[in-house]
């Protein structure tokens, strides 16, 4: 028996050693490479399983496929963007914005190739109890098309209700398209989608997960949440479709979502069109999907999408730049906090410069390993002068940030490496005080339900500290 276990151990070590050149050849960042080397050498069987689940070699091939799909759609979408930028309804006066916001605008236009558009109206919802009725009302009023894209779409009471509504609109002659992620919506089967398809609607899966072909495809996931109705109204933010998001459960998750009217709806429509084309090869660049914009408010907005198919990590670069440009206050809410070195140093430097840096995180996260990794950063952030709170009532799932009461963003991207580099994300940035101050009001309400982490009172048990340290080593691949 001892000999057998010795052979198993030696075989595992040899397998791990054999994979070292493969890990090194990927030319990942040094921290990520080191994490993988430690994993495959110290825990070879577990490490190799994780490598194929999270760092599988098909990742780059899929990225190339997505870039190729985007390139095929690019000419049609470029015409849409050109028309938007020339339309009077999208105009705004850049002189009313300070230099810092104009710098972020220019960066967003460069790295994400998305225009800054004026004339928008944005409603911010603090939870699903308010967001879902507004979403259902907009879909019920659709007369031309409804485009829906979610990472998680559960076949529970909330999901079935929304599917029934989509099927109803399809029967009424409205073009309905539903795109869900293959991993996040794995439980949503063809049986649940049958009624929608029979009614004339279309449903597709972004990179399906097969128990035979792709059982461990954890990367390259579409984490976006987008709904576009008639090219006039859109929804985006942090909410997925499920009972924990809509408020049907006793302990509904706390999240932030938005309803947008105005020119920025077209930008969200472009993001959906790219993802839909990748999944189905159906082009959605016809004028009917992008009607002439209407000026509905005074919010200057920019939609920023990012993903592993893009040469620039758009959302990461914009958040980093916004943090470095903060002068007075920086308030951040995120459910999953695993900052890379650049974001970590930017937050520390902002606090050391005297910026009021406040970070709001969940007290009880749904991913214990990710939360343990996040808590390993607490001491160095607190030492720099950052202040950290943990939200107590329920799971906090909102992803927001405000700078100096004049810049704000809400979207699908978490403040973690996975959102920055491995998943497809989308955020809306608003350059204006009304939007940012509304987010600050919500932030202050959340703080009243949270407990501040005090460094002097932070006594971490040895075993817990060891777990946090171990989780942090794996942070680059979480």
Chart the SSEs and their pairings.
Elements (H helix, E strand, L loop, with lengths): L1 H24 L4 H13 L1 H11 L3 H29 L12 H13 L5 E9 L2 H13 L4 E6 L6 H15 L3 E7 L8 H9 L3 E5 L19 E4 L3 E5 L5 H4 L10 E5 L2 H17 L18 E8 L7 H12 L3 E5 L3 E2 L2 H12 L3 E7 L5 H8 L2 H7 L2 E5 L8 E4 L3 E5 L3 E2 H6 L2 E7 L1 H15 L2 E3 L9 H12 L5
Parallel strand pairs: 2-3, 3-4, 9-11, 10-15, 11-12
Antiparallel strand pairs: 1-7, 1-8, 2-5, 5-6, 6-7, 8-16, 9-13, 12-17, 13-14, 14-16
Helix pairs in contact: 1-2, 1-3, 2-3, 4-10, 5-11, 7-8, 11-12, 13-17
Report on the structure:
This protein is of the alpha/beta class and 478 residues long. Helices cover 46% and strands 19% of the residues. The strands form two sheets. Strands 4-3-2-5-6-7-1-8-16-14-13-9-11-12-17 form a 15-stranded mixed β-sheet, with helices on both faces. A two-stranded parallel sheet has the order 10-15. The two termini are 36 Å apart. 51% of the residues are buried. The mean pLDDT is 87.
